[in-house]
Amino acid sequence: MSSESVAIGRPGAPAAQRVEPPHAHAGTRESASGAVARRWGLRTLALGYLLLLLGAPVGMIFYRTFEHGLAPVWEAVTQPNAVHAFWLSVELVAIVVPLNTVFGISIALLIERGRFRGRALLGLLLDLPFAISPVVVGLALVLVYGRTGWFGDWLTSHGIQVIFSIPGMVLATAFVSLPFVARETIPVLHELGTDAEQAAATLGASAWQTFRRVTLPAIRWGVVYGVVLTTARALGEFGAVSIVSGRLEGQTQTLPLYVQDRFENFDTTGAYAAAVVLALLAFATLLGMNLLARRTQRDTVV
Amino acid sequence: MAIEVHNATKHFGSFTALDDVSVTVQDGALMALLGPSGSGKSTLLRIIAGLETLDTGRVEIGGEDQTDAPTRTRGVGFVFQHYAPFKHMTVYDNVAFGLTVRKTPKQDVRERVHELLGLVRLDGLAKRYPSQLSGGQLQRMALARALAPQPKVLLLDEPFGALDVQVRGELREWLRRLHEEIHVTTIFVTHDQEEAMDVAGQIVVMNAGKVEQTGSPRELYEHPNNEFVMSFIGPVNRLGDALLRPHDIQILSGAGDHYADAVEALVRRVVHLGFEVRVELTLPDGRDVWAQVTRETAHELELHEGQILAARLPAPRVFA
Fold first, then answer.
1. A161 — phi, psi (to 5°)?
2. Closest CA–CA distance from residue B157 to any residue of chain A (Å)
3. Is the sign of the CA dihedral A207, A213, A219, A223 positive or negative?
4. Which end of chain B has less Cβ packing within 10 Å, N or C?
5. Rounded distance, CA B220 to CA B234, Å?
6. What is the separation of C-alpha A256 from the centre of its chain, rounded to a whole number of angstroms?
7. Considering the entire predicted model, what is its pTM?
8. pLDDT tens, A68-99?
């Protein structure tokens, strides 16, 4: 469509220039150079900001990590505690992200397609994890699931340990990364409208067939982006997990907790190396989801 | 199959969309639901499809009560106003959708889809995506998709509303012929009286959630039940409580007092619309009317602004 409008616009342009008086040219050129200056000014500002905030610190981490070559880095990241922390973080992501994806899509459908009172309230509740500090989340979980908490007695008598173990860490991570998939999906669902879904119903599709074949393909970009954000948030979570995990070395220490631990023990090489691994994990997620999304796009839009 | 709606009532909040509406559509008929926006015609169509639920009343399709049946088991083909294409699917997959959700064997799907694409003249476009089709093509794809699972009835919501005038005319003609070929009971919603009269055999005129009159285009035009139907089906002049059709006003040469049954009229404006010429007149008592005459008549009378001539008014219709 755009190529068409360009083709239409082109023949008219030279004619318009020809009838313009000379001084009008000077005026346009002046404002054009102003636009160029503005554009470059904006670029410098944006890039400078990014460099100071993002580029310099991340760059420094990489520089300090590999300052003395690969050997000490390799040694640091293959420490049993580091390897354990790495796999624990991966495990948490592997549990939390699918959980929050399914849950996020369900909530989005409920808020956007449901017909019941209190949908607005549900939307507000959904944003709570954004508003509450992770540390408070951690403390709240301890209050509810800890040994002296509400469910403490019941849990202890049934031999279930939530706080200072994996279940508590899953809860904390799921809590802080809960809104992303739903928040990314809701506007896409809204934009999509209900026509196509109703058309599917008239054609005999069940609710599940409609979701699987009509709704999900249409909202996949929102979901994909939500998954990327959820993964990044789950991987990097520190505050809430720090409290509910008890930070037991080699047991409940995730990668971010391990970085903090190494740093406090003056093992900068260990801290930097683990931080780089963390950054690479996040980067790999971003890349992976991007490739996946690109492939689905190629499949569906020619 | 026949469609029967009995005493349908539907409210949206405090708004009454349907107020005790009963409509019967004979098996194999092509019927138009005609009315201004907000008259409840689209709501009635969506209720037949099960896309809206009734407050009170009953819907029967082919003699079976479908009032509480879910949309997907009603066997209705529905064409949405903006076609509701599945944008991520090809034309082929769009049309095949209603068959594949029923787990129809692949070979049968292929045959049926190609048969339908032929019927709607989209043969070469099976691999295209909806974004690559024109409005008219999208409309035909939506129709093929709705027909694929062999629906008991076909429902179309403002099927030509979003198309430009020329395409609209072609599709009207084509829909009428298609209906002659496949004979499925069809209801379409429109706010355009000409479209309804052109395509449908029966018209239900709706206004403010009620049915005003049901009949063939000719019946409605010649014997309107009330003022609303008369003024909605075709143009009218309003003289106090009386209504008269512009083409029933006869314009005669010479002044008014030449004829016993005519009045004097001053020509205010003459509008040439091709074959039809619209003459705006002022009557002696100061009231304005307009008359519809042919090009020939306008030529013979040498109609022009400021001219004084005689107009013979028909017996006006007054509805209590």
1. -110, 120
2. 12
3. positive
4. C
5. 10
6. 17
7. 0.80
8. 889 999 999 999 999 999 999 999 999 999 99
